[in-house]
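User: Here's a structure from my thesis project, written as structure tokens. My advisor, Dr. K., wants to see whether a designed sequence matches the one we expressed. Can you design one independently, without my sequence as a hint?
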């Protein structure tokens, strides 16, 4: 899994990545920016991003607020899309009040609502063929899916509201 997000959303990203990794029975490798700063400080992290994107079967884009600058995330999305096969999945995790950007509207979008988050986690951990040919990642956590979905939903911040003032 390659997990793309803006620096401002690092806390949410870390929470979501922790949910994925801690419940995967050591079957998911998740590449994300916080891991780069620990592993590749002072090195060529851009090469590591490219390598991580090319090696991923799943690309997850965290998009809580559309008003944030998304250039780098969309660059990473483009890298993934360029090598996308029928076995790969591009997923946009977003706040329910956030629209998915037009460049990735054709891909799977998961709003941070309990039903959608639980459905997403069920597909990741419990469903057959999360990647074609791969058995379910961890059926043992099926009863915990609502709790994990709540963690995912709670992590994704509310988009900023613009104030319109009359002068």
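Assistant: Designed independently from the structure alone:
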């Amino acid at each position: 899994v390659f997990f793309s997000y803006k620096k401002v959303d690092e806390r949410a990203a870390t929470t979501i990545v922790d949910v994925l990794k801690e419940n995967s029975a050591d079957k998911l490798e998740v590449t994300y920016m916080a891991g780069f700063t620990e592993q590749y400080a002072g090195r060529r992290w851009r090469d590591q991003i490219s390598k991580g994107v090319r090696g991923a079967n799943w690309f997850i884009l965290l998009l809580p607020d559309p008003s944030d600058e998304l250039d780098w995330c969309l660059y990473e999305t483009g890298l993934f899309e360029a090598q996308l096969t029928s076995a790969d999945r591009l997923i946009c995790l977003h706040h329910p009040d956030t629209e998915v950007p037009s460049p990735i509207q054709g891909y799977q979008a998961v709003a941070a609502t309990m039903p959608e988050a639980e459905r997403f986690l069920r597909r990741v951990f419990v469903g057959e063929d999360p990647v074609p040919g791969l058995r379910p990642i961890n059926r043992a956590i099926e009863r915990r899916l609502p709790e994990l979905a709540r963690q995912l939903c709670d992590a994704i911040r509310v988009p900023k509201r613009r104030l319109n003032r009359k002068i």
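When you compare it with your expressed construct, this may help: The two ends are 49 Å apart (CA to CA).
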